[in-house]
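Provenance and format

Records in this collection were gathered into a single text stream. Each protein contributes a sequence line and a token line. The two records reproduced below are adjacent in the stream.
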Amino acid sequence: MFRPKSTLEQWRIFQAVVEYGGYAQAAEQLNKSQSALNHAVAKLQQTLGVALLEVRGRKAFLTEEGQVFLRRAKLLTQQMEELELLAHNIHQGWEAQLTLAVELVHPRPLLNRALQLYYPQSRATQLQLLDTVLTGSMEAISEGTADLVITGTVPRGHIGEPLTEITLLPVCHPQHPLASEPELNLDLLSHHLQIVIRDTGKQPKELGGWLKSDQRWTVNNFHEAIGIMLSGLGFAWVPLHLVEQLIAQGRLHRLNLLEHATRKFYTYLVQPNPGQLGPSGQKLLEALRESHRAEGSAVSHPVKAETGDAG
């Protein structure tokens, strides 16, 4: 196992001598004797076999090699500060890691705004973001595999805070045969290729969406589905916020269904284990709430038990 010959204190002193412009200045800032600093840097250079500093008059100047080592020394001291801060935070009950599961239909700009609010307060907590769909979102809640979950379905026994309304609508390519139909019924749709999003659950169930087509292709996310439709193949129910601009540009066509032309539901914020959410989790929770309040998209009342599906 590797054992370093130099010490962190030697690197800290070397960095201070450079930053403060000399041994005397650094000694005053570090509250150490100048001779102690001279000895530490001399010992460091002797150990490395590399000249880091050269003294001209009363000032110390970096050598070319010293410039390279200084950059690495700054990274070293920064990492040590972060390591000790992490230990301090954990000692205070601050989570080292959080997992946020997000239903794929949820608008990412709202999520990203929340992450911007959370980051300055995160204290180096490692955040894992999981994309989930349908049963996968429910499993993240029921199994407690995520600290916070944004879902389209609230399982029984849990409370969900409504975040934003989602509108799903059926679309296809403007040149697709379905696009030329002035009015469509669901029976006609069943004879055409439908693009659906894969349920991320370990035991996926067909919980929502119209899934009666004779032929279905399953993809991982809405962007893959949109890409396939832009090539002229299939139709899919997709969130309005993802395709509104493409429809306006004439690159995708909204299908004219006689019934069930749109599907609307809310996404909800759920705490699988509210009593176990630590300080960092609470900061993330508040950031998510604030982000959606700023958008003006949330409704005021929590929902318990099961709600609408997530598409």
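Adjacent record:
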Amino acid sequence: MPGGGTSINTLPKISLHDHLDGGLRPQTIIELAEAIGLDLPTTDALALGEWFETQADSGSLVEYLKTFDVTTAVMQTTEGLIRVAREFVEDLAADGVIYGEVRWAPEQHLTRGLTLDEVVDAVQEGIENGIDHVDEQGHSIQIGQIITAMRHADRSLEIAELALRHRQDGVVGFDIAGAEAGFPASNHKAAFDLLAREYFPVTVHAGEADGLDSIRSALFDGRALRLGHGVRIAADVNIEREDDDNTFVTLGPIAQWVRDREIPLELSPSSNLQTGAIAAWGDDVLDHPFDLLYQLGFKVTVNTDNRLMSNTSLSQELALLTDAFGYELEDLEKFQLNAAAAAFLPLEDREELIAAITAGFADA
């Protein structure tokens, strides 16, 4: 590990891109499924976890997303949502996360009669229960909800209004997610116009399963302050090698804009491999453009996306990158500082996070 044996797990970390329905504990799925009579591929927790990882490792975002049919099925009751949210917070805290943003799509949790406001309230109750439990154990964590609209549906304005109704009760941002290709941010103009008028922060899934046009739409139609994944911005980076000693890099207009405006990239290495997001560059973590983007000065952040589907944690993602690219402790600190600065929080709160990260890494 970097820092002469420092455990990455104990370092203070920031999690910006982590889906609620992608972070369930397998045993919880089994118990919630039994309560509602839902059949599962297996009722062994270890085997179920392996099933999710295998199914998700498809090379296709569309196939990857099918695993969520199982997790969302057990998140249709108040009790289920509270439990999943509480455990989500506890698992982040156990991994050393001091601030996390949990994103999820309320419209996917209405099949058993709950309303949009009721599901948001249930998740917030679970989050607060988790924070209290973590505090009792002598740890501290802050959590904000990012309310997500499904980009292939037609409810984004309604979901934006929902997010705004709960902005004083735990909701810190808005997102669109789901199948990316063919569903640009421009399809949701009314929602993004409303959010802009209300000065409400937006991140948009873009540059994961579609290319530069999707990123452009996220930036200018969605007014995205961050890019969810955004890994395909690397397609706008041109590398020319004259010989072994001379390499020239030029940025296209979109990449130039993203770098110069310091728009954070919510990169998720393991997930990007599973969904084929980096297929243009290879199929191994060494092929991931993460290091290229980092060396060029992009505001890269490290995320898990879906801890269950990728069988991962934020610490594990950082370890993968460290092993691949030889990062040192100061590099890992930089990734956390980038994330803290990008958090959907007031400036004073972000400054406190930055101070906590700096102090934590200084003690490592």
